[in-house]
């Protein structure tokens, strides 16, 4: 990590030597040598472990890790030899640790012992596992209403752990399942379920090898899904078009140097990852896609008038879709003026991009947080679907929808039942399996859990991984709410700020990570499973000796809490915690889509969970793929700040050196920022207009008039190539500015990519 704070030259392409150098630094971890090299050789191997880096699919096990800087960082961060044990906690009171940065906390290494917070000494102190389980059970059983407990899940939890967890929580009596997905791809799930009857993407990795055009929308794969760059680059290489829509010029979406290609590395070469690049304003993508549909429908009118063949797939539309005519009326009724103003693109640009679509036979659209974290994300995604339906680009080879998931098993966690909406088929099947009644009322998502915490009605909080306190909006308000709770429990690998927001009774329970050997009491090795963005399910078994003898698998920890809380009358928790095969058998009984789960998962590349939409089977109420009928918003946040002095729309995103709230280092190489994270990226004309210059410090102030003052003080201005009126900064630092009550319509996802703020001169 560089010590000096500076804004310098950005890398010329993504990947390459910069990636290797960064990988080298990662392998050094926190200064102590790690088992990195050997560990990495087993990453994504048929009998190795699944990369905890992201949810992009694996082409074939065994060849991916070398060029994936993200994966290397994630693995070496976990496989460090530094330890945070009882001595560490004896030395550092919690009030002191609270003053540390996210980076410094996690850098201390792996948690090693179950710990309980002692208010008298202000320290976490060692307890036995049984004491922890009994203590947690006592608090949970004290609550007069199980709905007063919140059970959070972060997307690294395995299918087995997540399934066991949801079974425990539902038997305990609630569907309160706030999870990281609520802050992430929830809008994709909601939109796709309504439109095509399944909340998942419809493509396989192989489809990328066959398509003619990829729209890559609102995502930064160079940092967040580096293995996707190779896919994009190959597509460009074989003559497909890759059309990017991104508010910023992201390095990885221009050129990529493949660190696996020795010749290219030596020559300093790189190859393009896109062919066309457009830069809509924040929140402007629905207008872009509406505009493109307008061009396509105009082309259809023209073709019909001239007696030429249709440009649409009329057979598909007739056989498979609902509300096409209504959609056509809506598109025709939307004015170009509104489309241009909202999107930030010209009519010519939109026409150009739509013509690519008209010319292409097989089209894939991918997207991530630049699309899902707005107020109207659900409608925006449905507009993408509408556009894709026009030419039947869903459910055939080389074409389809691809929401690119974040956490490595966030999709699988949902499939096995982490869902506050309590899906009826799942609850029915669970009741049948267990022979008892399961609650059916909807539980809390993240936004509702925050609401309950702030009101004081939530009394207990248990987290299966993650860093809720830092990942959520209004983070300092939420942190304070934690201190009023009766019980807070974190099952985690590394210490983070969430663990320091202690309730009356608090535990930190250390678990095995993906890289570590998971063995039961007889020493028999256990495997877990995960599901990637392409619905491929595969096994994962760690190879490293666990960071401490005390560590337990997530499965064993959940079983321990469950047994202490509920007893073993309904479920034999001990038996399940000894053998993950038994959990998989149970999953397959409850969710038949897994088929012969244990057999399937032992195939070399795992297996594919059948996706109804990709087979053109539409599990919607109309039994058809629905065109989503929503007008453009009358005003996006960007439009609302026009003419207001010093007021901007802020997007909060990731630097190149972080994994969500885990900060690996202080550099953002691809954006030319080194050694500093408290920055705001602004268009240089905007900087000038508001009377500042590059490098000046500003206070970024929230403008929502709801009685809570939001401010990030002393952030440094970085002049950047970004549309006027739009600014950007890093999460989680800027979560202070995201109001918890501005959430997406129907998705309830915090609007982390469109926050209205004002920039004031910095005051001490
Ligand atoms: N190294 C690393 N890998 C990760 C993560 C990490 O933190 N670090 N996090 C993981 C997780 S959980 C997730 S969800 C994914 C996140 O993956 P991404 O979605 O790539 O994450 P962000 O950094 O939030 O980047 C958002 C991108 O969208 C663009 N954007 C923002 N608003 C708009 C808009 O309105 N329109 C358009 N067209 N573009 C917009 C931004 O300029 C930026 O390039 O990555 C996963 N992988
Ligand atoms: N402003 C703003 N806020 C955002 C976002 C944004 O773009 N902008 N993005 C949102 C998104 S997309 C997401 S997904 C959320 C992320 O929210 P979370 O998933 O809650 O956060 P992470 O930072 O991924 O969690 C990191 C912690 O997970 C623990 N951990 C790591 N590996 C394991 C493991 O194997 N098992 C267990 N039990 N614990 C483990 C470690 O203790 C580590 O400190 O944040 C959201 N918040
Ligand atoms: Mo995410």
TrEMBL record:
Q: Which Pfam families match?
A: Molybdopterin, Molydop_binding
Cofactor(s) annotated in UniProt: [4Fe-4S] cluster; Mo-bis(molybdopterin guanine dinucleotide)
In terms of InterPro entries, this protein maps to: Asp_de-COase-like_dom_sf (IPR009010), MopB_CT_YdeP (IPR037951), MoPterin_dinucl-bd_dom (IPR006657), Mopterin_OxRdtase (IPR006656), Mopterin_OxRdtse_a_bac (IPR010046), Prok_molybdopt-oxidoreductase (IPR050123), YdeP_MopB (IPR041953)
- Positions of the Molybdopterin dinucleotide-binding domain: 648-747
Top-level taxon of origin: Bacteria
In this chain the Molybdopterin oxidoreductase domain maps to 110-493
Identify the CDD domains for this entry.
Answer: MopB_CT_ydeP, MopB_ydeP
Keyword set for this entry?
4Fe-4S, Iron, Iron-sulfur, Metal-binding, Molybdenum, Oxidoreductase
What the record says about family reads: Belongs to the prokaryotic molybdopterin-containing oxidoreductase family.
State the NCBIfam families in the record.
Answer: Fdhalpha-like (TIGR01701)
Designated name of the protein: FdhF/YdeP family oxidoreductase
- Organism listed in the record: Sessilibacter corallicola
Q: What is the lineage of its organism?
A: Bacteria, Pseudomonadati, Pseudomonadota, Gammaproteobacteria, Cellvibrionales
């Amino acid at each position: 990590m560089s010590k000096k704070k500076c804004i310098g030259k950005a890398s010329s392409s993504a990947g390459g030597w910069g990636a290797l150098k960064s990988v080298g630094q990662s392998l050094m971890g926190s200064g102590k040598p790690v088992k990195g090299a050997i560990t990495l050789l087993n990453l994504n191997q048929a009998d190795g472990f699944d990369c905890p880096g992201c949810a992009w699919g694996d082409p074939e096990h065994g060849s991916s890790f070398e060029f994936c800087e993200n994966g290397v960082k994630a693995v070496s961060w976990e496989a460090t030899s530094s330890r945070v044990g009882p001595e560490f906690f004896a030395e550092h009171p919690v009030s002191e640790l609270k003053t540390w940065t996210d980076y410094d906390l996690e850098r201390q290494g792996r948690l090693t012992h179950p710990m309980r917070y002692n208010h008298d000494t202000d320290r976490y102190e060692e307890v036995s596992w049984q004491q922890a389980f009994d203590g947690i059970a006592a608090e949970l059983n004290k609550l007069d209403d199980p709905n007063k407990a919140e059970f959070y899940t972060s997307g690294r939890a395995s299918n087995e752990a997540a399934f066991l967890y949801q079974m425990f929580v539902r038997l305990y009596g609630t569907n309160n399942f706030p999870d990281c997905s609520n802050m992430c791809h929830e809008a994709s799930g909601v939109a796709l379920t309504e439109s095509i009857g399944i909340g998942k993407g419809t493509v396989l990795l192989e489809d990328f090898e066959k398509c003619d055009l990829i729209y890559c929308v609102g995502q930064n794969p160079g940092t967040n899904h580096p293995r996707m760059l190779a896919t994009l680059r190959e597509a460009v290489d074989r003559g497909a078009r890759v059309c990017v829509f991104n508010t910023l010029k992201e390095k990885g979406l221009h050129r990529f140097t493949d660190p696996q290609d020795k010749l290219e590395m030596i020559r300093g070469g790189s190859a393009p990852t896109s062919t066309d690049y457009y830069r809509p304003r924040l929140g402007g993508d629905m207008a872009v896609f509406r505009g493109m549909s307008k061009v396509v429908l105009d082309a259809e009118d023209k073709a019909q008038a001239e007696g030429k063949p249709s440009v649409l797939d009329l057979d598909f539309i007739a056989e498979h879709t609902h509300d096409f005519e209504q959609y056509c009326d809506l598109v025709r009724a939307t004015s170009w003026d509104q489309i241009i103003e909202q999107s930030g693109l010209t009519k010519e640009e939109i026409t150009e991009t739509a013509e690519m679509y008209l010319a292409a036979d097989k089209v894939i659209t991918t997207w991530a947080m630049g699309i899902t974290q707005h107020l109207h994300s659900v409608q925006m995604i449905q507009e993408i679907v509408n556009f894709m339906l026009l030419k039947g680009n869903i459910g055939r080879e080389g074409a389809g929808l691809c929401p690119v998931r974040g956490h490595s098993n966030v999709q699988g966690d949902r499939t096995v039942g982490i869902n506050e909406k309590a899906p009826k088929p799942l609850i029915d099947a669970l009741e049948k399996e267990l022979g008892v009644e399961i609650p059916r009322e909807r539980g809390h998502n993240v936004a509702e859990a925050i609401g309950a915490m702030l009101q004081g009605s939530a009394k207990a909080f248990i987290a299966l991984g993650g860093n809720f306190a830092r990942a959520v909006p209004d983070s300092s308000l939420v942190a304070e709410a934690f201190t009023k709770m009766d019980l807070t429990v974190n099952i985690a690998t590394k210490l983070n700020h969430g663990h320091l927001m202690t309730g009356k009774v608090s535990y930190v329970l250390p678990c095995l990570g993906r890289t570590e050997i998971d063995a039961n009491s007889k020493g028999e090795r256990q495997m877990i499973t995960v599901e990637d963005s392409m619905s491929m399910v595969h096994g994962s078994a760690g190879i490293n000796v666990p960071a401490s003898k005390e560590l337990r698998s997530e499965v064993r920890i959940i079983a321990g809490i469950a047994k202490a809380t509920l007893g073993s009358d309904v479920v034999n928790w001990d038996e399940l915690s000894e053998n993950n095969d038994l959990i998989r058998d149970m999953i397959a009984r409850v969710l038949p889509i897994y088929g012969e789960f244990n057999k399937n998962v032992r195939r070399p590349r795992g297996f594919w969970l059948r996706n109804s939409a990709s087979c053109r089977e539409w599990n919607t109420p109309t039994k058809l793929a629905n065109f989503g009928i929503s007008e453009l918003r009358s005003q996006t946040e960007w439009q609302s700040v026009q003419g207001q002095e010093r007021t901007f729309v802020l997007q909060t995103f990731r630097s190149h050196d972080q994994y969500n709230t885990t900060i690996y280092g202080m550099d953002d190489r691809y954006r030319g920022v080194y050694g500093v994270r408290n920055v705001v990226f602004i268009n240089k004309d905007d900087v000038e207009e508001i009377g500042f210059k590059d490098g000046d410090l500003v206070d970024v102030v929230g403008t929502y008039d709801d009685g809570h003052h939001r401010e990030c003080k002393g952030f440094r201005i970085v002049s950047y190539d970004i549309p006027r009126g739009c600014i950007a900064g890093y999460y989680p630092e800027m979560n202070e500015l995201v109001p918890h009550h501005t959430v997406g319509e129907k998705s309830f996802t915090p609007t982390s990519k469109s926050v209205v703020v004002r920039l004031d001169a910095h005051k001490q």
